[in-house]
Design brief:
Length: 621
């Protein structure tokens, strides 16, 4: 197995087999208006051209699609891309067609006559790329079509779906193992954004890749700003965060369907253009939300994990986790949906140990219902534990994520996480505070849960307090100066730190352990954390991304983009990316020749909307 890392690779290289860099560059300029390849793209494209099996791991936004789009265009052949979701296929095909690149998709959202029409085009060799779902690929009808076309190369997008260690295991992906037996001389190229070493091995094994070229890009996304905040008043916290991204696209992830609806309603009541999205909604309604988001008619989607893979809107500036996701893979994937255009984006996770417990219960229940093999349930438990550790250990978030994916982070201060920006601080007198909480747990005889203990500490006046005589305890009201939600969060921090136990089951109670007694005796210092309010001003990295950009012109260009998208019935982001709009709003080209040099405008887009862009720039004075 040959592994190349990103540091070793840059630029376009010529090749002994005759695919010269010039041919690749011509295609690159013609369709996309790009001048050069990114690290690893050259190697991945060469593997595609030479039809050597490969596994390409690049972060979201790293430019994987180009790696399988370029080879068939250069070689003049038809390749097949296996993709898990219709929305994903549709957006890719729309985007490719806007660039003048011949591509088509076959999916269950099309009626029979449309399918027949596209099949005829494919059979006539009119397309360079065909997108299909794994189920369709393995139907006799499609296999026959592929055999007739003598398809010699398959790309598997979102290849981690094949592994139970991935965050998005899809049983139908397992059948892709058949590809190598059905098309023994074809090459198979797997692409994914998230893969630990374990998942990589699994992908190679499951797909039966032969001596694959393994290309692993850097996982780090320097343009993403990671923040983890204690979850206190989550609705207000979310609204505050969204306010920093007024008029920009954001996604809020939460665990349950009900949560998505509550949060979306709250945001709407605060004047935010938000809508919920979850698997319990009618398909039409879901599609409507998705379309409105793509058309920039709403700014925020509040979703369960059901929303995502189909979303490749490239200008998402903020991803919020209202609750911890169930693995670092999921976190990386979901936060990775922001800033795909390379511009800065913010990712905020509101953490509470209560949500970890919620996940544990949900996982236990679903494992029982699905009668899943014990190893699948166990892998789920371990992945969640890793995520909990990520959220609770305070160190550079970029370094922690890199380490998880087996990479050493070289920067000393990333300037793009709560830790490096100095936004996390210790709570004053943490040890004394902890002692008060622990002694309260002792006073209530270790028989009550978090809620009740917090009630006692904050001096709640309730029937329950009186019934148990707890208003007479020495710890009653001893922490009444702290807001209740802050107090609850601190109790959960003690659980996270192993200083306090919580019994499993439906009526969990807080229990003391050896560590608790050690703390109470003064033999162990505790450090509890709290978040400083983030500055509402932009960070250094955000500031740099706006340098020389005329922000008003940028907004006008966004408006023009929305208009063009509406006329063509496609998502706004496939017309032109934010990065291209910002370059336009900074360079302000006013001739066709000058626009040609802007990154992201190929020949077809130049002909199709160059004049309107110039008009917009000129009318802006
Ligand atoms: P991925 O599939 O890895 O998430 P994409 O293929 O969607 O990433 O690429 C992310 C963005 O980067 C897209 O806007 C794409 O057009 C852009 N991009 C890809 N390769 C290049 C390149 N060589 N030069 C400039 N932009 C690129």
């Amino acid at each position: 197995m040959k592994t190349v890392d990103s540091a070793a690779a840059a630029g376009v290289t010529g090749d002994a087999n005759g695919w010269a860099s010039e041919e690749i560059l011509v295609v690159l300029r013609r369709f996309w208006g790009f001048e050069s390849l990114r690290p690893l793209q050259a190697e991945a494209i060469q593997a595609g051209l030479e039809r050597r099996d490969s596994l390409v791991v690049m972060p979201t936004g790293g430019g994987k699609s180009l790696c399988y789009q370029v080879p068939p265009a250069v070689a003049g052949r038809t390749d097949i891309v296996v993709s898990p979701l219709i929305a994903l296929m549709k957006d890719q095909v729309d985007a490719l067609r806007l660039c003048g690149y011949p591509a088509a998709a076959l999916h269950s959202g099309m009626d029979q006559s449309e399918i027949r029409g596209v099949e005829r085009e494919i059979a006539a060799g009119r397309h360079r790329l065909i997108f299909v779902a794994p189920e369709r690929l393995l139907t006799p009808r499609f296999l026959e079509l592929a055999a007739r076309l003598e398809v010699s190369s398959f790309a598997i997008d979102e290849a981690h779906c094949i592994s139970q260690w991935g965050h998005d295991f899809r049983p139908e992906y397992r059948r892709l193992a058949e590809l190598k037996t059905r098309f023994p001389s074809a090459s198979v190229h797997a692409y994914t954004a998230t893969a630990t070493e374990r998942v990589r091995r699994d992908i190679i094994e499951q797909l039966g890749l032969e001596e694959p070229t393994v290309l692993v890009g850097s996982f780090d996304r320097p343009n993403l700003l990671y923040r983890v905040r204690p979850k206190l008043d989550v609705n207000a916290q979310i609204a505050d965060t969204i306010r920093r991204h007024k008029g920009e696209a954001s996604i809020v992830y939460s665990i349950s369907r009900k949560d998505t609806e509550h949060i979306a309603a709250y945001l709407a009541s605060e004047g935010v253009r938000a809508a919920p999205y979850h698997a319990g909604m009618e398909q039409d309604e879901r599609r409507r939300t998705q379309d409105r988001f793509a058309a920039e008619e709403i700014d925020v989607v509040v979703a369960t994990v059901a929303f995502g893979m189909g979303i490749d809107r490239s200008d998402i500036r903020c991803v919020i986790h209202a609750a911890i996701p169930k693995s670092i893979e999921a976190y990386q994937q979901e936060t990775g949906r922001s800033g795909r255009d390379g511009l800065p984006a913010e990712c905020v996770l509101f953490y509470s140990a209560a949500d970890v417990i919620r996940w544990q219960n949900l996982m236990k229940r679903s494992a029982e219902e699905a009668a899943a093999p014990p190893e699948v349930a166990e892998s789920g438990r371990l992945l969640l534990e890793e995520m909990r550790r990520f959220a609770t250990v305070v160190r550079c978030r970029h370094a922690a994520l890199s380490a998880y994916f087996g990479e050493i982070y070289s920067g000393a201060n990333c300037a793009a996480c709560d830790f490096c920006l100095g936004e996390v601080e210790g709570v004053a007198d943490s040890t004394v505070l902890a002692q008060k909480v622990l002694s309260c747990v002792a006073r209530v005889e270790q028989r009550f849960g978090v809620e009740h203990v917090v009630d006692v500490l904050s001096g709640a006046s309730s029937e329950r307090m009186r019934r148990w005589g707890h208003e007479k305890l020495s710890t009653y009201g001893i922490l009444k100066d702290l807001p209740r939600k802050t107090l609850t969060n601190l109790v959960y921090q003690l659980i996270d730190a192993g200083i306090l136990e919580r019994t499993p089951g439906d009526r969990p109670a807080l229990k003391l352990n050896a560590m608790s007694w050690e703390v109470m005796r003064g033999g162990h210092a505790v450090s509890l954390l709290q978040a400083k309010k983030p500055k509402s001003t932009r960070t250094r990295i955000e500031e740099a991304s706006w340098r020389d950009v005329d922000e008003a012109l940028f907004e006008s260009l966004r408006k023009l983009r929305r208009e063009i998208a509406a006329e063509r019935g496609v998502a706004a982001f496939v017309i032109l990316h934010d990065a291209t709009l910002r370059e336009l709003a900074s360079v302000r080209p006013t001739t066709m020749e000058a626009i040609r040099h802007i990154r992201g405008i190929g020949e077809k887009k130049l002909t199709d909307f160059g004049a309107r862009v110039i008009e917009c720039i000129k009318s802006h004075g």
